[in-house]
């Protein structure tokens, strides 16, 4: 008798986890397959319904990124191909539920593989011990309720149209071109970079440069206030949702036997306790506080020298502007000057060359060998030292505000796995997504990147390398899967360091028109500017980290203290400028309310300690010692990148470094401790 096999909430779930479910739970070829998907495309719907054994439940979830829809097609295609092969034994006499839980409880509810269960610190046994599945799901926050779509809608709802030369004073050509494109897309078909009109939005490629370069302080204030008040009005107001989410998370933690959600979160992370995290953050805070105070005083002094009337009372919308002016004066260049030296094609060549140098891999364009979801998307193949294909990845590089959320990220399309089909062993190579939001090409000009965008590309590719260079065949812990959240940024932040390596930088920094290499003076200034305002930058991340922990550890959603009061209390020791009374940035703090960083934002700094220490190993053998660098690079590949989530991250780090991590390299790299 056929049994229903239920795969719940495909959207947001990786193929690997569904694949793990199939290989561990299904052994009866007569089973029916019930797929619950979010707004499947017509193509996906046709693919699903082409098998008489597949039933589809369409859940209407709006606002998905295009690559997520594309991923679902891969999932459905692979599932159907494997089921219809009649070589997979589907097995279980009972109905099986594979429930997504994007808010903290990791593990597979019905997995039978002891290796995976051993590596999951929070798994189904805890759920079964403390409550039934129905009760547990009843208090699991729905990701749609987290307001991520509210933030996206609020971001798109605001725009500032500039029409006069006085309103664009100070804006660089790249921003004027982008703003004119935005105006054209909004219906101003005659808009040009030279004559306008120019449309400024809250998408970061527009918002960030506007705050940095606009000489109109009143307009900077208008745009900044709109940014910090996103998702606070009407149907898009997230304030009530924040309270609900924090309360539901607290209930979930207590039902699972924890005192707080922060304790639940850390149970599946590298950090041993909330106290250990707070101890690390306090060590970094103490090292950063005086430097951040000095940063602000330096900005005031510089603004005063320039005759700025606001010099003694700088506000949040002034910091980026005066920081950039001070940077220009101190280092005699601005971020826009470097764009011509970082065309995307050359940067990719440099990145791929570094990967060959360190990890012995070759990366080749493979456009046309796989379907894409948008015409700008690229497809690449990764080969090992023997020339064998071992992985592939998509690159979706450009900003598309109407359909693509801001920021940059890496995700997995397919994960490495090995299957036993009868007497045959079949392996599957990993495929990754690399999504960025940099300035698109304008006319004949290629995408010209700021140095910050170069660092972002290297960062996200570090995630991709961990996914693609894994040697673990178990899909549940290969690549980025099952890696503790506070260790997952180690490869990405490690790769950022190489942007400052002479051989790497000069291998990619050439003028897009003349081919001339980046002038040596610029390189020296980049090195000097690396620690510019480092105390302020460090303190900002510590502020976010401690606020996140406080909300998920000590804050009582049913108590009298408000989340705004918590924000102000934490800011008193982590921010040299007090928050504005109408600052509602928590309503758009997607990392902890709509992403995976709840009680885990500290992971950035925790992993930064790991990555700085890892890179210091290369410094110790001398970055110009090519043989030593290559040898160490292979060791990094064979430990950090290869072992994925199959080992505890401290074990993996010690395998590479030979000892436990230390904070000294991070403080030294940040200029907060003497070399």
UniProtKB/TrEMBL annotation:
<dbReference type="GO" id="GO:0046872">
    <property type="term" value="F:metal ion binding"/>
</dbReference>
<protein>
    <submittedName>
        <fullName>Oligopeptidase A. Metallo peptidase. MEROPS family M03A</fullName>
        <ecNumber>3.4.24.70</ecNumber>
    </submittedName>
</protein>
<feature type="domain" description="Peptidase M3A/M3B catalytic">
    <location>
        <begin position="210"/>
        <end position="671"/>
    </location>
</feature>
<dbReference type="GO" id="GO:0005829">
    <property type="term" value="C:cytosol"/>
</dbReference>
<keyword id="KW-0482">Metalloprotease</keyword>
<dbReference type="InterPro" id="IPR024077">
    <property type="entry name" value="Neurolysin/TOP_dom2"/>
</dbReference>
<keyword id="KW-0479">Metal-binding</keyword>
<dbReference type="InterPro" id="IPR045090">
    <property type="entry name" value="Pept_M3A_M3B"/>
</dbReference>
<dbReference type="GO" id="GO:0006518">
    <property type="term" value="P:peptide metabolic process"/>
</dbReference>
<comment type="similarity">
    <text>Belongs to the peptidase M3 family.</text>
</comment>
<dbReference type="GO" id="GO:0006508">
    <property type="term" value="P:proteolysis"/>
</dbReference>
<keyword id="KW-0862">Zinc</keyword>
<keyword id="KW-0645">Protease</keyword>
<dbReference type="GO" id="GO:0004222">
    <property type="term" value="F:metalloendopeptidase activity"/>
</dbReference>
<keyword id="KW-0378">Hydrolase</keyword>
<dbReference type="Pfam" id="PF01432">
    <property type="entry name" value="Peptidase_M3"/>
</dbReference>
<dbReference type="InterPro" id="IPR024079">
    <property type="entry name" value="MetalloPept_cat_dom_sf"/>
</dbReference>
<dbReference type="InterPro" id="IPR001567">
    <property type="entry name" value="Pept_M3A_M3B_dom"/>
</dbReference>
<dbReference type="InterPro" id="IPR034005">
    <property type="entry name" value="M3A_DCP"/>
</dbReference>
